[in-house]
Amino acid sequence: MSENTGHGRIETRTCTVVSYGSIMEKMFKKKLVGLKSIVGIKSERTIVATGEYTQEVRYYVTSLDNTKPEEIASAIRQHWSIENNLHWQLDVTFREDYSKKVKNAARNFSVATKMALTILKNEKTTKGSMNLKRLKAGWDEKYLSQLYRFISGLMKKMTLEEKVGQLSQCSGGFATGPDNTRISRTEDISKGLIGSLLNVSGAANTRKYQEAAMKSRLQIPLLFGLDVIHGYRTGFPLPLAEAASFDLDAIERGSRCAAKEAAAAGLHWTFAPMVDISWDARWGRVMEGAGEDPYYGSLVAKARVHGLQGDDLSKENTILSCIKHFAGYGAAIAGKDYNSVDMSMGQFVNFYMPPYKAGAEAGAATFMSAFNDFNNEPSTGSTFLLRELLKNQWGFKGFVVSDWGSVGEMMNHRYAKDEKEAAYKGIKAGLDMEMVSECYSKNLVSLVKRG
Questions:
Q1: 326 — phi, psi (to 5°)?
Q2: Is cis: bond before 7, omega within 30 of 0?
Q3: Radius of gyration of the chain (CA)
Q4: N or C: which terminus of the chain has fewer CB atoms within 10 Å of its end residue's CB?
Q5: pLDDT tens, 180-208?
Q6: How far is the C-alpha of 277 from the C-alpha of 298, rounded, in Å?
Q7: 403 is catalytic
Q8: Would you say residue 13 has pLDDT above 70?
Q9: Exposure b/e, 350-377, CB count within 10 A at least 16 = b
Q10: Strand, helix or coil at 81?
Q11: Distance separating alpha carbons of residues 374 and 370, to the nearest angstrom
Q12: Which of 97, 403, 418, 432 is catalytic?
């Protein structure tokens, strides 16, 4: 781009700085103008929700083209510290940089994952079998055709190890469960052996790992996920308290605000909403759901999915939702977390199933399998739940991720004798991505080669 600065025309580039919260706009502009490489700033303010700390401000910063993006980002952060302020955050993206490519590729991750599984099973891949229209309402035929050709061509280039890598998720930050892995994450990421990271957030952190992914042979970007349960920077009431308001519009707008803030921090995916129905107050996670009623729980599930994903997942201010925990997690015997679930199918269909189905019908991009066993079979390895009910009967076209380590925990359930059998039963049941426990990454390649 060419810019007239009064000293002749020079080549420039433009970056967008997105901030949320109470930002002193004049001071921010004054500090940026003081940087020698910056030649112009324009701003645009949007109210993303009612309440405090909910303004989205975009600053379009024009700088000299020969200035490296990293230098601009470093200069901005040096002049405007964000490390210790919990009420707002700053993110920097650059036009004509790979950040946009990364974002768009991550949005299409569910399509790529589905095709990876199809090829792993040696099934015929056709445009019709993918039913791409149902994955993204509003995409025109030309875009769908381009998307299919891109993914199909990418899949043909991938080795079996790289395909399995896309089905593996590791924790890159704090642990939300037992973590005994010893993974050189940046090294494996640069080899294309990891497809997703959880518990990593913030532009600086996600960029570090994404740069490692860009060093891989095929430069497939990582998908970043995090538990964004009741707000990201802006805190909202606990989900149960939100549900108690019976204000579905406010619930949806709260999720919309959380999605915008999370997306600005480099996240693509949240492990929410939790839609488990529970009638036992002894169960510790009642506060994460919408209460006891399956009908109202279904309405809340739809509102939260719409809030998180918006009407177009290709937009940069949306994130993937995840319906959890499939299935019956809130019906643990005696209210003990992780305990068995034992009920008739009539009880399940009438009182526990509706919110899950509502989430799928609302277009939720992902589902999470539950820790618990469901009628003596671990949900993570249940062909009935994941393949027959969710994918075949309901027509769910996204992907299913395990809960933390639940593939490996099939051994604790005495359902698998070792990690290899756990990986086999998980992938056969329809579990598309394993979170943390590494049974897939260690065993799927050899299982496929053995036929």
A1: -90, 110
A2: no
A3: 23
A4: C
A5: 454 458 899 999 999 999 999 898 899 99
A6: 10
A7: yes
A8: no
A9: ebbbbbbbbbbebbbbbbbbbbbbbbeb
A10: coil
A11: 9
A12: 403
